[in-house]
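Throughout our pipeline, every protein is held as a single compact record rather than as scattered files. The record that follows is passed on verbatim for readers who wish to inspect the format.
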Amino acid sequence: MNAKKHPSIKLFVLDTNVLMHDPTSLFRFEEHDVFVPMMTLEELDNNKKGMSEVARNARQASRMLDGIVGGFEDRIEKGIPLEEPSSGLATGRLFMQTEPINGALPSTLPTAKADNQIIGVMMHLIDKHPKRSVILVSKDINMRIKARALGLDAQDYYNDKVLEDTDLLYTGTREMTADFWEANGKDMESWKQEGHTLYRIKGPVCPDLLINEFLWQDGERPFQAIVREKSGKSAVLETLKDYSHQKNNVWGIMARNREQNFAFNLLMDPEVDFITLLGQAGTGKTLLTLAAGLTQTLETKLYSEIIFTRVTVPVGEDIGFLPGTEEEKMTPWMGALEDNLDVLNKPAEDGGEWGRAATRDLIRSRIKVKSLNFMRGRTFLNKYLVIDEAQNLTPKQMKTLITRAGPGTKVVCLGNIAQIDTPYLTEGSSGLTYVVDRFKGWPHSGHVTLMRGERSRLADHAAEVL
């Protein structure tokens, strides 16, 4: 291997889980070199069978490696340039293990284990190229700890991390400062349109605002508005509809706090096609979404049906072991949906038990429960698509789902990034964090982070003290 290049060009040794997490990771190391040990290829081979996301990614990674290596078999020793296959994304080279390597591993580490063999390869490379920095890239925390314990350099695969610190994630809301109107209200124009008041403001805050961001101010005259337009140093704010008032209730549900009111303003707006709601358990994400969905499906007939889906974690890759149809197999995961429908299906004053049963049947006929496993290749027309527990999806799965939306479809993603059950996903690399960050500021999308739990005094106290 030719290592007489700049010592500043690092050599990254890839663990299998990086390729299975993101098959394009080979092209994400810019000017640095990538080394793929034989054990990584062996583990890719072991994971290629099946229809799961992991198996699909393993096959994709193998195809990419085949495409890169094809025609360069005689150059593997010197490294295959990645510039052409990556269309200029990466300028480093790809090296593969071409010789048996028996690194001097501590006697306590069993060499039969794949992870230890990869660490052995790393130690060999460090001996061979003492001037270069050789770094292990793995999504497996234990593997990184093991490597560091042996004095080796190891790091996580950061490329698809949207944010290092999730506290910096866009919340969709912004508190107005006490001097907001003095600083931004010069030559302010205001007018009325369809029951809302609009204000055109100019000032230093305007360049920072994002379209569909909510602004609020408490005090004697509380003010809540949404940013409708923005150009340079001016912006247009529109006052909100107050869903905390009984006359504006949505399927019998009223907003209990400021963020819920913001969420209803997005959910009931036909111009907003994509909504993300983040929040802890009990903040009302599912309830608000279903109330808005039922109103727009059964009353205003804006959508033909509600499609409710969620990740079946424990990621039972296959839901085939439970008896029944797709709908029945999903039932164990749909407790949250049933609980919320019980709240929404209040008995009509005069309908009694019969009326209630009829309403329940009508609601159930309009809500379809689907498994994520069968979403590929579908197109949803005029549907209200709810993706629950979206924090357990990878960015790639998120893209697969959102691109299912056809004309007239609204997609709502719900989740709590503090509750991730999928291995190798973190708060920073979750698909939900990814879409919140990428969609902010698009005129047809909106985001709200719900803050306050509204379940019960018991649940609120438990969330605080436990």
About this structure: The domain at 249-465 is CATH 3.40.50.300 (Rossmann fold). The radius of gyration is 27 Å.
